[in-house]
Write a structure and sequence with these properties.
Elements lengths: L14 E5 L10 E2 L13 E5 L7 H14 L5 E5 L5 H12 L5 E3 L4 H9 L5 H12 L5 H13 L6 H8 L3 H10 L5 H19 L5 H7 L5 H12 L3 H6 L4 H11 L8
Parallel strand pairs: 3-4, 4-5
Antiparallel strand pairs: 1-2, 1-3
Helix pairs in contact: 1-2, 4-5, 8-10, 9-10
Length: about 260
């Protein structure tokens, strides 16, 4: 996983639990400054607990900003008690605005809960653009909007020319804007968006044969889908299915396709 900053520079000291594949249980709570990014594996998730040691709104805001900036490839979920009071409910509402990926209630199976909240984003395009603001903080608004359009329509638009026409942009202009920023071409972004959509489908429908999903997604067969995922993310379909979430996949693609230093200004 790419890493954005020194975790020792985090402004807020907060305890998180790490869960890694196969997502059977969260690990013990550890201060975020003690977590070595080099030991985090693809698909890892941070669980931020709010209960008896309740974070106030200001602390939660600061903690999430720092964690998501320094560990952009790791999605964050809230862990809450099964009996909620008004204060916890308020923090859940705030966390959603701060792009926490979901809420896990005590006593529910961890793997099933993570599969539910990490594989079915309500608005993936908007989430991706917000996430890109962490990874590429100088991304111009017009390029951010182009990326939003690509991720919003990638599931139905297979040709980049048609997608750009739908966005009211010309292929030449779009390529030029991305080239100036040393970013991949519109066609590469579309390829990544389609592969990400396929990956989330694989993760979400664990019991559906990969061949069946491949056909439903417009691929000729299982191997065509697996080849596409390997070309974009460096992983086969069976590997992608075992690891939940999309941030780590998109982070991997950016690292493979750009020479930029992916860090805040």
């Amino acid at each position: 996983m790419a890493h954005l900053c020194d975790p020792c520079s985090l402004a807020v000291s907060v305890a998180v639990s790490v869960i890694e594949p196969p997502y059977s249980a969260f690990g013990p709570a550890t201060d975020i400054s003690r977590i070595d990014h080099r030991n985090l594996i693809p698909g890892a998730v941070f669980g931020l607990r709010v209960d008896g040691h309740l974070l106030d709104a200001e602390s939660l805001t600061g903690a999430l900003h720092d964690i998501r900036t320094c560990y952009a490839a790791v999605p964050v979920v809230l862990r809450v008690p099964d009996r909620l009071d008004s204060a916890v409910a308020r923090l859940i509402q705030l966390a959603a605005q701060l792009h926490v990926r979901g809420v896990l209630v005590d006593d529910e199976p961890v793997g099933e809960a993570l599969q539910r909240v990490l594989t079915a984003p309500i608005d993936l395009a908007t989430d991706v653009v917000e996430w890109l603001s962490l990874r590429l903080p100088r991304l111009p608004p017009e390029v951010a909007e182009l990326c939003r359009h690509i991720f919003r329509y990638a599931a139905t638009e297979t040709k980049v020319a048609g997608l750009l026409r739908r966005a009211g942009d010309s292929a030449r202009t779009a390529r030029s804007r991305l080239r100036k920023l040393d970013l991949p071409s519109p066609a590469s972004w579309l390829q990544a968006a389609r592969a990400l959509n396929a990956a989330l489908n694989l993760q979400r429908a664990q019991s559906t044969p990969i061949f069946t999903l491949a056909i439903e997604l417009g691929y000729s067969d299982h191997s065509a889908l697996s080849h596409q995922l390997h070309r974009v993310f460096g992983l086969r379909a069976s590997q992608v299915r075992r690891l939940l979430g999309w941030e780590w996949l998109l982070d991997t693609w950016l690292a493979r396709n750009t020479s930029l230093t992916l860090a805040p200004a």
